[in-house]
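During the reporting period the student researcher (J.K.) took over the structure-prediction task from the postdoctoral fellow and processed the backlog of single-chain submissions. One of the processed entries is reproduced below for the supervisory committee.
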Amino acid sequence: MRLVVFGSTSSIGSAVAKRFGRAGGTTVFVGRREPEAVDLVGNEYVSLADLRTSSLDAAFSSLEDIGEIDVALFAMGRFIGNVFIDADDDDIAGAIQDNLTSTILIAKRAIAAMQGRPSAAIVILSSIAAETAGPGLVVYGALKAAVSTFAKAVRQELGSNGPRIICFEPGLVDTAFARDHHSGAASTDSAMSASTLADLIFKIAWSEPNLCVDLVRPTSLGFWD
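J.K. obtained the following structure tokens:
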């Protein structure tokens, strides 16, 4: 069982790697930073690559050494929470690159590497902001909505040939990133734990290889309070 995590090497990415590791899986992280070692279980490898550059082809070439990819987790992204009219142009361009452009370009290569394997899965992390964005989340919500639409459309295009495309739109997840951007709200009951989300990803992407799920939108019970 081989998992490749693109982008986030902390919190959610590491939690998913840890869950797969407990089941005997091997994880390869592809991103700009080393993963948080405290969250790992010993059967992970790191391929450092800037997913915003032309090094994508080189990164995928290096993945050939590990064999077939069973599950690919797309955990890249950048939060931008400014009032739209005040947002910096460079911040907007960076958010477009990290949330949308990277997702599309990496998906193109991942699908090519995994095509013809209906049990394989690409898990794309979007956000509930795709459906609930409001003031302060104009750009972020629009980009996550685009990511979700892309996931749905490409799944329909692939049909039953594989890989499966599964889009997650989680609510608030208790991560360092969320605590930095939500004034501590992630430490309350309004957030789910990264390990809970990881368990769900493992269940749908690996434990149920014949299950086709377009969209998963998990939240904690307190999220809507």
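The committee noted the following: The helical segments are 12-22, 56-63, 89-114, 129-132, 138-158, 176-181, 194-207.
J.K. will present the remaining backlog at the next meeting.
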